[in-house]
Amino acid sequence: DENHIQIVENALLGNKRIGKSKSAEYGQVLIEHFDKSEIEIEAQRIVENVTIVYAQSNLCFIDKETGQQTFQPTADQLGVPGGKVVWDKSQIRTFTYSPWNFQRNASSMQRHCIKMGSVFYVEGASAERNENQQIGEFYNEGLGRVIYDPIFLKSNPDDERLTSLSFVKADLIKEEIGKNSEPVAINTSLGHFLKKQKDLAEAELKLAKEINEAIEKYKDTGITRKVTSSQWGNIRAVATDFLINVKTWEEFMIKLGLKEGEKKNGLLTCGKMAEKLWDERNIKDIKELLTNIQNENKLLFTIKFSSEMAKEAINFKNKKQ
């Protein structure tokens, strides 16, 4: 009633101090009452023939064709029938959560949501303005509220630096490289750590690229079609042992029997499996491969390459069946 409203207003209105720092220097605000009806917001187009859909709350949509949740709603689902969503000019962020149902004492179905604050750029149609507009699913969980062409996305006419809202896909990486064309001296512990992490990532990428190129080169040869996954597992085990115990690459090649004059007791050159799997052609291919490794850590290359070749051997065997 009016008495309660008056009590609340007396408690809220006037000079107040808020926040953690309530000294004489910080935290003082003036709270005043205003009538919402006095504020008139004129609905205007931000961009001609375009509707900007702003997610006032988190949004969740279900694809009508598949019945599955989707991060790419149609213009109809956004409340702009007949339009087309331009994804290059839209800006969305996503997340997933599972609400807890206390009645069933279990999690409900996962919600794949578009985050509050996301912006959709829809061309070729307009939406009806409605203060209580809701779209998508799960209204009861607070999802689905949107604002069409919100006034706060419109440029300020008093600001000479802004003439209109524009959507530009920026190449941030290129811009940063252009700004920092000159190398910066590293003189902190954090800088050295980040530099080391960067070097490790680049080395890993370089190694993976060389392995993929090798697999592509030899995928139709006998070392893929004939050599079994267990043989590649043996090669990987030997290479791992040599890497851990810091043995040389030359010793590893001798162990495999791929060094000239040392073929008698090699892993690939003696025994029944050697006769069955490692014929002259396959020995030539594996020797060529290992001899031409460009990566500095040849044993690590061999370990990872053997792992991938074991998978290739299994895939080839399954295709034959």
What do you see in this structure?
The protein has 321 residues and is of the alpha+beta class. The chain folds into 3 domains: 2-33, no CATH class; 50-153, Immunoglobulin-like (Sandwich); 207-320. It is built from 9 helices and 12 strands. The chain has helices spanning 2-12, 172-179, 189-218, 222-225, 229-244, 249-256, 272-277, 280-291, 298-320, and strands at 14-17, 28-31, 50-55, 61-62, 69-70, 84-85, 94-97, 100-101, 106-107, 111-114, 119-123, 146-148. It has a 4-stranded antiparallel sheet with strand order 6-11-3-12, with no helix packed on it. It has a two-stranded antiparallel sheet with strand order 1-2. A two-stranded antiparallel sheet has the order 4-5. Helix 3 packs across helix 9. The longest helix is centred in the middle third of the chain and has 30 residues, at 189-218. The protein is elongated.
Concise structural overview:
This protein is of the alpha+beta class and 321 residues long. The chain is built from nine helices and twelve strands. Helix 3 (189-218) packs across helix 9 (298-320), helix 5 runs antiparallel to helix 6 (249-256) and helix 5 (229-244) runs antiparallel to helix 9.
Please outline the helices and strands.
Blueprint: H1 2-12, E1 14-17, E2 28-31, E3 50-55, E4 61-62, E5 69-70, E6 84-85, E7 94-97, E8 100-101, E9 106-107, E10 111-114, E11 119-123, E12 146-148, H2 172-179, H3 189-218, H4 222-225, H5 229-244, H6 249-256, H7 272-277, H8 280-291, H9 298-320
Antiparallel strand pairs: 1-2, 3-11, 3-12, 4-5, 6-11, 7-10, 8-9
